[in-house]
Amino acid sequence: MSVNNKYNIVAESSQSTVVTEFLRDEKRATSYQSEAELERAFIEQLKTQAYDYLSFTTEDELVNNLRQQLEKLNDFTFTDNEWDNFFKNEIANPNQSIEEKTATIQEDHIKNLTRDDGSIKNIYIIRKDNIHDNTLQVINQYTTEDGKRSNRYDVTVLVNGLPLVHIELKRRGVPIVEAFNQINRYQRESFWAASGLFEYVQLFVISNGTHTKYYSNTTRSQHIKDSHEGGAKKGKRTSNSFEFTSWWADATNNPITDLMDFSKTFFAKHALLNILTKYCIFTTDRLLLVMRPYQIVATERILSRVEVSTNYKKLGTVEAGGYIWHTTGSGKTLTSFKTAQLASRLSYVEKVLFVVDRKDLDYQTMKEYDKFEKGAANSSTSTSVLKKQLEDPNTRIIITTIQKLDRFIGRNTGHTIFYGHIVLIFDECHRSQFGDMHTAITKSSFCWSCSIIYCLIEARSNGGGLVKGL
Asked: Distance between CA 352 and CA 355 in Å, rounded?
């Protein structure tokens, strides 16, 4: 594919969520460490990264700290009555499920407070517009007595006072699946206890010091068929599955498995807050997905290329585009959706077009996009519908086929949309997109002000992630 040779690697900012290339500390511990020693070392590392350490272990202390942190975040002081009502109705409402609490963090992070004088004030639970307004704290050995049994949790990261990341540790040599199983037990026995604040946890991290993985706090339904032999009844059961845990890695897809190395990268303040506020997706099926490092790298490199080409007035040139190469089964649709979503929110981008090849694939992609966010994208069923969508300022993401886009261009020479800032994302462009229609599109005036991103799929495997690209 000669087109690949036209594009150069994009320079990366030091503030990228995924570190460009991680150089391991040769002094890191490899000998025996007890769980307590590993926990102390981990907390000390977080403290060097400007996490505030708190020594409390009880529910009252957790709730009091939450109030203080929300007051700090919102530059506002609750009266006791206001806090009591807000806490009971908006944060610790016993009628809210884990899914509803996850929705609070991912979709509904600005709540209404009815003040004592009857006025309404917006209260931010987490700031997504300026992530560094949020406060990160770390606690350990938090104890709950109100569940099915007494439990003591290893390490928890609080974001504005809410437990959003929980870390369970095992001593070196113990399989990390034991930490995973322990978290599942906590979910059954005590995360829901008392005020249920631990049901706000978005991410779990499990480690034995040598191996470290992360995963989202979600449950996946498993259908159970009738079985006369096993006595099982038809229905559903929900559980977290170890197969959905992920390794963290640098931008070259080299795994970062040691806990201290993981802490320096994944738990870097800007990285963790970006993951929580940008790179988690709460689907319409009420599943919380967290992106893998190569997906985040791909998304950020595309957005960087769009920004750079805009600032340096390179739109419509080869330098304004690039390609992302995913291996089969590595989550390209999720990457393309998140890229389209974030690009569509840029003030200088008017439209994002996700261009697919086959006639039926746009409906398949539409269905998948709809699972990520209902109504996030519009599928054009005809060239006339595509024209209306391109002219509608409220339609930000459009899924269309290359055939329809080609017909639109041929029939609408000089259309004003040709002078707008459009981001084109081509799906599986090693197929017919490199034929006559693709050539016609890229050479037309439609691309005078475009950023063109090619999303390539290659069947071979190379670590299950990003092979190469922008």
From this structure: 9
Rounded to an integer, what distance in angstroms lies between the CA atom of residue 410 and that of residue 418? 12
In the DSSP assignment, the letter for residue 230 is T
Task: Report the candidate in 462, 387, 469 with the shortest Cα–Cα distance to residue 426.
Answer: 469
pLDDT at position 441 is: 67
Could you please state the CATH topology (level 3) that the domain comprising 2-13+292-469 is classified under: Rossmann fold (3.40.50)
- Model pTM? 0.85
- What single string gives the DSSP state of each residue in 342-367? HHHTSTT--EEEEEESSTTHHHHHHH
pLDDT in tens, 353-412: 888 876 656 667 777 888 887 877 777 778 899 999 999 999 999 888 888 888 898 898
Q: Which two tokens stand for residue 277?
A: 């506020």
CATH code for residues 18-277: 3.90.1570.50
**DSSP SS3 for 139:** strand
Provide CB contacts within 8 A for 228, sequence distance 6+.
none
Average pLDDT over residues 264-290: 94
Whether the pLDDT of residue 306 is over 60: the answer is yes
Q: Which two tokens stand for residue 107?
A: 């979709």
Considering Cα of 62, then 214, then 337, then 296, what sign does the dihedral take? positive
> Which residue ranges make up each domain of the chain?
2-13+292-469, 18-277
Kindly tell me the burial class for residue 30, based on how many C-beta atoms sit within 10 Å of its own C-beta (0-12, 13-18, 19 or more): exposed
Bridge-based pairing of strands 220-224 and 235-239 is antiparallel
Q: How far apart are CA 410 and CA 398, in angstroms?
A: 19
* Burial label, 32 (beta-carbon count in 10 A; 0-12, 13-18, 19+): exposed
* Residues sharing a CB contact under 8 Å with residue 409, sequence separation 6 or more, in sequence order: 440, 441, 444, 446
pLDDT category of residue 231 using cuts at 50, 70 and 90: very low
Structure tokens at 129: 């517009």
Rounded mean pLDDT, 82-108:
96
